[in-house]
Write a structure and sequence with these properties.
single chain, 151 residues, mainly alpha
């Protein structure tokens, strides 16, 4: 039978993999949204002018951006769940194997990282992804409002 450290290590690996999966799914969704947005804007540009029929492109763009923002928020939340549990499991392993000096290694790395990246260290990457999707949704909404106002 495996000892407790082996069990903790396997649980840690599983949580890190789950966190990685959340980020991969978010990246895939964002890539799809960007491709669809580029195609939609390219089509609108090719038309040369916005008309009422363009709402068939701009309104779904608004919905797509809104969905992307909501999904990115959820992926960020799920990532935090799995990453947080992985950190707790790592801390438990560090306590059980104090000879590895994990707490000091982690603390030293965090200090070095904060010194090297003082501003961006505080920034949460999922907020940037939500902002990108929200900008796409807002752009679709503004284009739709422009079309309605000029018709």
């Amino acid at each position: 039978m495996a000892d407790e450290s082996d069990v903790l290590l396997e649980l840690w690996k599983g949580q890190r993999e789950e966190a990685r999966q959340m980020e991969n799914q978010r990246a895939t969704l964002t890539n799809i949204v960007i491709i669809v947005t580029a195609a939609a804007l390219g089509f609108l540009t090719q038309q040369g002018h916005l008309e009422l029929s363009s709402l068939g492109i701009t309104l779904p763009l608004c919905v797509l951006g809104t969905f992307g923002a909501a999904a990115s928020t959820k992926y960020g939340e799920r990532w935090a769940v799995h990453s947080g549990l992985a950190d707790r499991l790592r801390d438990e392993l560090g306590q059980r194997h104090s000879e590895l000096n994990l707490p000091n290694l982690i603390a030293a790395n965090q200090v070095e990282h904060r010194n090297e990246f003082p501003r961006s260290e505080r920034m949460r990457i999922w907020i940037l992804w939500v902002g990108l999707h929200a900008a796409i949704g807002t752009g679709g909404l503004l284009l739709s409002l422009w079309i309605v106002a000029t018709e």
